[in-house]
């Protein structure tokens, strides 16, 4: 980009942040600040695209498959569908209202940015259900369970990729897992057993059984969409800016960090002799998008490896709330 335009963008940002009193930035500082702004803007655009696609997909799954056939799903969406079927209250209203306590919990435990995105995503889903006319695809119960769950799960998964949720159940599960000996999977399972038991009693056993198939289809699709990420993800980061990344993880994201001392080998810039600090941390899958954004702001060439972790015990994962902006 033209250096003058780059400087203008950075100065405008500094003005909006009321940083005019700071010393004039060097050209290197301006370039670094501009890179941060560019990365933030790009990731924001990607998040919006993921969330919008998630809203459309979830709305399609609900209105084209589940609602016309009185099927339900697990989680908050399942409670909303069950309540709507029994009381005739509009589903869009119930989805927003029932998610409110979970969103408040998300604000306090995960962060403001996550909570705001989730509020907008859930309100967007409610608006889509009110305004978009989706066709009824089929009345075959097996197809409804399979594809209704698929499109609903795809919508939830895409929203998670965008740093938001359309269903607040996982927020509750992550919070309770820190306070109890239960895993996130255990808590979600207990929550859904209660919902499907209620569906069997209030609707019919057949509807409850098909709804369990819907939930299984949605659950597997969510895992597929977010690339098989389990409840916790171990992240290894190799970068020449390891100290900045360590500070970001501990101060901005509230995460514990382990530092390994490694030896350089060969890379894109031929032989790189010497040692390097390797950063390791554990995050939840709801924080993956934010971590990638923050690391890219510091070092676009950082090498990141992620591994699925079934569960963790101790440390900062369960002993303190997640901190976020």
Question: How does the SSE layout of this entry go?
Answer:
Layout: H1 3-16, H2 27-66, H3 75-87, H4 91-109, H5 112-131, H6 141-161, H7 169-179, H8 184-202, H9 205-225, E1 232-238, H10 242-252, E2 258-263, E3 266-267, E4 270-271, E5 275-284, H11 288-298, E6 303-309, H12 315-319
Protein name: Membrane protein
Subcellular location: Cell membrane
InterPro entries: DUF2179, N-reg_PII/ATP_PRibTrfase_C, UPF0750_membrane, YitT
Summarize the structure.
The chain is an alpha+beta fold and 325 residues long. The two termini are 29 Å apart. It is 63% helix and 10% strand.
Question: What do these coordinates show?
Answer:
Keywords: Cell membrane, Membrane, Transmembrane, Transmembrane helix. Residues 255-314 form the DUF2179 domain. Its main location: membrane. This is Membrane protein. It comes from Adhaeribacter aerolatus. It is a single chain. This protein has 325 residues and is α+β, with helices and mostly antiparallel strands. The chain folds into 2 domains: 46-225, no CATH class; 231-325, Alpha-Beta Plaits, CATH 3.30.70. The protein is built from 12 helices and 6 strands. Strands 2-5-1-6 form a 4-stranded antiparallel β-sheet, with helices on one face. α3 runs antiparallel to α4, α3 (75-87) runs parallel beside α8 and α4 (91-109) runs antiparallel to α5. The protein is elongated and about 65 Å long. The two termini are 29 Å apart.
């Amino acid at each position: 980009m033209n250096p003058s335009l780059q400087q203008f963008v950075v100065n405008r940002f500094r003005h909006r942040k009321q940083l005019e009193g700071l010393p004039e930035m060097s050209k290197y500082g301006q370039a670094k600040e501009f890179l941060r702004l560019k990365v933030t803007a790009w990731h924001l655009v990607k998040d919006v695209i993921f969330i919008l696609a998630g809203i459309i997909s979830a709305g399609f799954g609900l209105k084209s498959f589940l609602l016309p056939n009185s099927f339900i799903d697990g989680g908050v969406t399942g409670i909303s569908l069950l309540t709507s079927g029994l009381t005739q209250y509009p589903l869009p209203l119930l989805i927003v209202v029932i998610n409110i306590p979970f969103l408040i919990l998300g604000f306090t435990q995960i962060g403001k940015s996550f909570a705001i995105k989730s509020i907008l995503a859930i309100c967007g889903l409610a608006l889509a259900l009110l305004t978009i006319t989706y066709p009824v695809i089929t009345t075959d119960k097996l197809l409804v369970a399979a594809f209704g769950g698929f499109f609903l799960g795809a919508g939830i998964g895409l929203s998670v990729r965008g740093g938001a949720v359309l269903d607040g159940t996982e927020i509750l599960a992550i919070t309770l897992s820190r306070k109890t000996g239960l895993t996130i999977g255990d808590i979600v399972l207990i929550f859904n057993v209660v919902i499907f038991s209620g569906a069997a009693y209030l609707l019919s056993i057949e509807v409850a059984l098909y709804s369990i198939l819907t939930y299984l289809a949605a659950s597997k699709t969510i895992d597929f969409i977010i690339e098989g990420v389990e409840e916790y993800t171990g992240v290894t980061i190799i970068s020449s800016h390891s100290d900045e990344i360590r500070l970001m993880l501990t101060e901005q994201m509230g995460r514990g960090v382990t530092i390994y001392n490694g030896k350089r080998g060969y890379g894109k810039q031929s032989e790189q002799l010497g040692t390097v600090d390797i950063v390791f941390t554990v995050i939840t899958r709801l924080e993956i998008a934010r971590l990638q954004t923050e690391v890219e702001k510091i070092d676009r060439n950082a090498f990141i490896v992620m591994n699925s972790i079934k569960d963790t015990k101790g440390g900062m994962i369960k002993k303190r709330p997640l901190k976020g902006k």
